[in-house]
Amino acid sequence: MRLLGVLLILFVSTVHAGSARAGGFEVSDQGASAGGTANAAVARADDTAAAWHNPAWLADGAGFRLMAGATFLAPTLRGEATDQTWIAETNGGVSVAPYAYLSVAVDDFLGGVSVNVPFASNIRWPANWDQRFDILESKPQVFRVAPFLGWNFGRIRIAAGPHFDF
User: Fold this and answer.
1) What predicted TM-score, i.e. pTM, was given to this entire model?
2) Structural domain contains residue 79
3) Is beta strand 142-152 parallel, antiparallel or unpaired with respect to 164-165?
4) Which of 51, 65, 80, 126 is the most buried (most CB within 10 A)?
5) Residue 110 · residue 58 · CB < 8 Å
6) Residue 83 lies in domain
7) How far apart are CA 142 and CA 164, in angstroms?
8) Does residue 101 fall inside a structural domain?
9) Per-residue pLDDT of the chain (166 residues; tens, 9 = 90+)
10) How many domains, the chain?
């Protein structure tokens, strides 16, 4: 019976649905530390951008933290027909994804807010592209405000809050 339980846990932990992303438009690197570590910032307790990735890390009694910045994006896509009848490349220019994080951790209590633009990229296909009647431009813009509260229970830290998208 124990072997069955172990096998069930192993199966469930390895077979799961992947994350759905917004067609490559999500800006997951919300902060310089995240960008410099291939978005491994969820494991960094010393980074104020944890307000976005994992706010519970900030429930350490360290006081006031503030961080602001921007990520500059210059995406390109290339489309090519399998029969080589057409090739097209995008020209989206530069997009800016600003972010700001504020948190206050006093004793075991935490409060804060994360403000960022998680979808800020844009793609523009050439005006004479063969598929121009399907799509010519894609420019999702989402401004997200995410307040949170957290508590430190010793070895366990918990934080939660809503996301408001505009």
Assistant:
1) 0.70
2) yes
3) antiparallel
4) 51
5) yes
6) 25-165
7) 10
8) yes
9) 778 877 777 776 666 555 555 555 666 666 666 666 666 655 566 778 888 888 998 999 999 999 998 888 777 777 788 888 878 787 777 888 889 999 999 999 999 999 998 877 777 777 777 766 776 677 777 889 999 999 999 999 999 999 999 8
10) 1
Q: Report the C-alpha gap between 48 and 32 in whole angstroms.
A: 10
Among residues 60, 62, 44, which one has the least CA distance to residue 156?
60
Q: Is 133 exposed, middle or buried (0-12, 13-18, 19+ CB in 10 A)?
A: exposed
